[in-house]
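Weekly structure sync, notes
Attendees: PL (lead), two postdocs, one rotation student
Agenda item 3: pending single-chain targets
PL asked that the sequence for the first pending target be pasted directly into the notes so everyone works from the same version. It is reproduced below exactly as submitted, 474 residues in total.
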Amino acid sequence: MTDTPTILLNGTPTALTGAPPTTTLLDWLRGPAGLIGTKEGCAEGDCGACTVAIERLVDGKLTVQSANACMLLLGQVDGLGIRTVEGLTDARGHLHPVQAAYVEEGGTQCGFCTPGFVMASYAHLASGGSTKVEAIHDALAGNLCRCTGYRSIVASVERAAGAPALPADALPTLARTADTSFEGFHAPRSLASALALRAAHPTAALLAGGTDLGLLSSRSRTPPAEVIHLAHVPELHGIATTPAGLRLGAAVTYSEALPTLEALHPALHAYLTRIGSTQIRNLGTMAGNIGTASPIGDSHPVLLALDASLELTSAARGPRLVPIADYFLGYRKTALAPDEIITAILIPPAPEGAVLAAEKISKRRDQDISSVAAAFLIARERTADGDKITHARLAYGGVAATPVRARHAETALAGAPLTDATIAAAISELPKDIAPLSDWRASAAYRMLLAGNLLKRLHLRLTPPTAPLEVDAL
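Predicted structure, written out during the meeting:
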């Protein structure tokens, strides 16, 4: 059936009329809705000027998350609450505590970016986010201010501590249980329906969070003719830990997966919180990152190092498991058949005593694409002659047409002691494994140097200094 997407806009049920379902929420807000407080800065999810708050019910409880309106499609937000900066004030024009704090702390300069900062701050505090400085910086890493520093903005969030979430009482009235279709934008509510749609429309774009696909509508202005939106398929959600390992549903977002992944491998906290921004991680999925098959996808080296497998499912043949190392066939080419979708990521238990390290090198710390990304899984055992490497998986992104395992370098490490000489031997093997290209992010020579230096850093992290460092007195 063809229907009309409907949202709870600033607390009021609103049909998203006047634009196709592949229109961005930002365009609709600033156009038919006439809500121009939400700004357009970059149209690609980098600046945060278009940040809105998404409201949804999870197990009957209201949750609030920030998101980039420039990357959300109208069909994608059907059934959700969307709150813009206009929706923070009450009917009498009284400011919300977050808005008031920005006024009191002088947290605005020219004001163009301010609505996005305010909405990111509101979503952070309304979801129970910490007001520790590090947490505030992480929550606002996806928002850029061109005028000045961020001290007054951070102070505004600190001042607004405890600011409440606004009610979204009408959300249950928008809930849908049946499949919907909005002019070629299909939103199945079961895996069976999703697989049937995929079989019937093998060229349709598969949409999970849309943090990559959304660029076709926002930046390129060439939206896909047909979309299958998978976020409402319950079988694609869920995180399960079993003796066989961790199973992540393909629709699980980075934000949802982060607590489980960092509990298994603490190094992933610092790494995953540098994938995009809070707004991006609230929408984006690891399976979606895999589906785009970009050689610089940040999740790929981690999953390669962890020896993950992908569950690929079709209506005709059912599910099959493909090691992620066999999934990437070439530049933007994968083993996914036209009638298949990724349904889960499976991560086996790491070898006994293994340690995972993950690195992302980019020109800018936050909100930047990697020049080189790497993940290393190393296991050692203590012998009479010292530590010996019993297991090594080295994975890189940004150094070839696909993400790669550095198997020659792994062989140089396996069975050897963890020494400078061993690391040097592994680095000497890297040219057999990787063939970087030069582009505006980095030259081939620099990428090759980075790949080796990251192995040196791994050695330093795994080998504590034998003597305290001496620092000259000033």
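Discussion points:
- The chain has 16 helices and 20 strands.
- The CA atoms of residues 411 and 426 lie 8 Å apart.
Action: rotation student to compare against the earlier draft before next sync.
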